[in-house]
UniProtKB/TrEMBL annotation:
GO terms for biological process, alphabetical: carbohydrate metabolic process
Coiled-coil spans in chain: none
Protein family per UniProt: Belongs to the LamB/PxpA family.
Reactions this protein catalyses: 5-oxo-L-proline + ATP + 2 H2O = L-glutamate + ADP + phosphate + H(+)
Name the UniProt record assigns to this protein: 5-oxoprolinase subunit A
Pfam name, any one: LamB_YcsF
Amino acid sequence: MNIDLNSDLGESLGAWRMGDDAAMLSLVSSANVACGFHAGDPAGILRTLRQAKERGVAIGAHVAYRDLVGFGRRNMDVESADLRADVIYQIGALKGLATAAGTTVRYVKPHGALYNTIAHDERQARDVIAAIREIDASLVLVALAGSPLLGWARDAGLRAVAEAFADRAYTPNGTLVSRREPGAVLHDAEEVAARMLRLASEGVVTAIDGSSVRIEAESVCVHGDSPGAVEMARRVRALLEQSGVAIRSFVDAA
């Protein structure tokens, strides 16, 4: 068995520090790197890319709505032409920085509100899919496990990878519990590790009401900006490897 561990990185902005990229890059197999629209500045992004290159971590473009103030977590009704151009622009910027760092962008994982919106909003989803195809059709799209987006992307000729979240609670129907609800974000590293071992070995997680829900995923995200994120990722990786689950990026398994 093998599974990918990913984290959202490159999100520091100027004097404001977000997460511990260096530590996370020693634990994950894929890095979703901010492109400047919701977080990240060029110097910090370049530093993260160079660290990822040193550790052999796969690079993904963490594209987002143009929303620095809201950290990309505010819903936006962006016109199709603007959304497509914004996604192309972000991927292109990260590709340039990645070239300077001696590495390449291998996949795209939308961030925050954009990620959640295109999981079910077909119009915006097809705009993002079209943008990826226009700039580089070989890029893999990472999307919420069980969402219609996976099918839309595959129908358009993109490889799509289903993703689960280590530190987020699930509803009984397999969707993420809203961050506005109590218990939406999990903080117990031991609990999270045990949940991810069950996901990797059985394809099942325990929902917020205690029921079991089937989640088919090739990649697991540990949010880099969560309190205790590094320790959580360390515990998840350790338990998976102790149980015979190899940590391997989905782009290396293509």
